[in-house]
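A.,

Following up on our hallway conversation. Structure tokens first:
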């Protein structure tokens, strides 16, 4: 039953606390209760929109943000939320109009809002290869830096966007600046290390990789590269105790269910996998960063050599090797690389119970080698 002694602001504050804890269902219950008493509260409608967005209930989120904008047509948080929701529906142009309206209304001094919109645009650009969205994301990130020049996160975001726009010299400078401001900024350090690795600056890449902990990594790519560099530089064996924590982290990441893993489990057991909302919400941006980094640099990667289980040798970049493996498998037909890796991952999982990552070629091949399915020569 609603508790009428609470104001709409108090309902909003309670829901906000629950939302920050990842308790989206509970936050939504509080907001609904508040709206029964204060149906015209813009803040409560906006809160419902963000709770729905976190639960990936995009149609309902859109409705809530639109209801808020009916009550207050120029509310900056409602515009940002609606824009983010429109991106989920693939309506990029309409979303951009919402975001640019925030600029026009003079909210460029709102640090959190600038970062929120920039991240939403960055994720969308990463998933749909829209360079103009990276440009707009960079504008929002630069506004955040203008408001907080000593904020490492804002500087790092500028670096991520600069890299995706092929401004690598500026990206390196921004990421280094971010680490000068906060040496514990793990995401910036891992991204910088990967970027240096792709530019064949292996000594610098190892320097930064070695200043991360296994728990800082939420993607296999950086860990594989760190292991490769440590083995090469220090002449370590595969089972050297110094590498054990990194192999353990690879195992942990392999056990975490991502979208592909969930699909595999459903195909093999028929059970529905539970949603893992909080980690996905926290790591969505970082996933886009590393996936995009691996994809953009694939054409520039040094030549590698892989020997398949049947003795066939493949050379080239990681993507070229997977392409040749796909082409050699007649059953693959006209499958895309992603389809091929997912199909191979499903087969391996059903036969061995081993889960292979399928989001980028390098991680796919390294995990296959670790499972004994092939051998990486270089």
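Then the amino acids I'd put at each of the 378 positions:
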């Amino acid at each position: 039953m609603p508790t009428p002694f609470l104001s709409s602001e108090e309902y909003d504050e309670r829901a906000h606390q629950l939302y920050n804890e990842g308790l989206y269902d509970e936050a939504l219950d509080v907001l609904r209760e508040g709206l029964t008493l204060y149906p015209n509260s813009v803040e409560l409608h906006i809160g419902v929109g963000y709770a729905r967005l976190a639960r990936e209930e995009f149609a309902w989120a859109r409705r809530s943000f639109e209801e808020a904008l009916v009550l207050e047509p120029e509310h900056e948080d409602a515009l940002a939320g609606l824009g983010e929701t429109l991106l989920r529906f693939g309506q990029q142009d309409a979303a951009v109009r919402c975001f640019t309206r925030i600029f026009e209304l003079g909210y460029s001094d709102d640090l959190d809002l600038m970062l929120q919109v920039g991240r939403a645009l960055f994720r969308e650009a990463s998933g749909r290869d829209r360079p103009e969205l990276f440009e707009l994301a960079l504008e929002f990130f630069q506004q955040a830096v203008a408001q907080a020049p000593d904020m490492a996160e804002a500087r790092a975001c500028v670096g991520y966007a600069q890299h995706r726009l092929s401004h690598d010299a500026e990206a390196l400078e921004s990421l280094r600046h971010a680490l000068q401001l906060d040496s514990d900024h793990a995401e910036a350090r891992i991204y910088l290390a990967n970027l240096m690795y792709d530019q064949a600056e292996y000594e610098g890449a190892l320097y930064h990789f070695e200043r991360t902990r296994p728990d800082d990594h939420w993607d296999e790519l950086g860990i594989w590269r760190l292991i490769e560099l440590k083995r090469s530089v220090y002449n370590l064996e595969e089972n050297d105790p110094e590498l054990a924590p990194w192999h353990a982290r690879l195992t942990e990441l392999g056990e975490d269910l991502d979208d592909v893993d969930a699909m595999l489990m459903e195909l093999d057991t028929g059970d529905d996998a539970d949603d893992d909302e909080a980690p996905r919400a926290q790591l969505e941006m970082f996933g886009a960063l590393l996936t995009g980094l691996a994809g953009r640099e694939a054409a520039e990667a040094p030549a590698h050599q892989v020997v398949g289980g049947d003795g066939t040798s493949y050379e080239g970049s990681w993507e070229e090797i997977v392409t040749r493996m796909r082409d050699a498998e007649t059953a693959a037909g006209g499958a895309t690389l992603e389809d091929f890796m997912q199909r191979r991952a499903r087969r391996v999982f059903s036969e061995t119970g081993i889960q292979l990552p399928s989001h980028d070629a390098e991680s796919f091949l390294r995990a296959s080698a670790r499972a004994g399915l092939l051998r990486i020569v270089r």
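The longest helix spans residues 277-297. Curious whether your intuition agrees with the design.

B.
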